[in-house]
Design a protein that fits this description.
Structural class: alpha+beta
Strand order of the largest sheet: 1-5-4-3-2
Shape: globular
Radius of gyration: 14 Å
Number of strands: 5
Number of helices: 3
Largest sheet: 5 strands, antiparallel
Length: 102
């Protein structure tokens, strides 16, 4: 999904259908931290991985459940990416299988 518009009705429908989603978060997203993952290795590009609750008047009504927000810095492209996720079990860092086999 594009970060220009976050459709919390669609995301909440996906959540209740048992689907997982990943979408870019808007800079203006209002939320409060519920839980913070302190086990972060910034060498991977991961900056934070938090559980949040939306606090914007409309967004918290449209998506009342907790979410996960992950910030990743792509050093090669000098690009900061922030994602909203409803999957709390998946790793926030993609592991390259070739490097894992060494």
């Amino acid at each position: 999904m594009d970060k220009a518009y976050i459709d919390f009705v669609a995301l909440y429908s996906m959540h209740w259908a048992g689907s997982f989603f990943v979408t870019r978060a808007k800079v203006t997203l209002n939320y409060e931290d519920v839980e913070y993952n302190y086990n972060i290795d910034e060498r991977t590009g991961l900056r934070y991985d938090k559980t949040i609750k939306l606090t914007g008047p409309k967004s918290k009504q449209l998506y009342p459940e907790i979410l996960r927000i992950v910030e990743y810095f792509d050093e090669e492209k000098d690009l900061l990416l922030v994602f909203l996720i409803n999957n709390f079990d998946a790793s926030a860092v993609f592991e390259n299988r070739k490097s894992c086999q060494s």
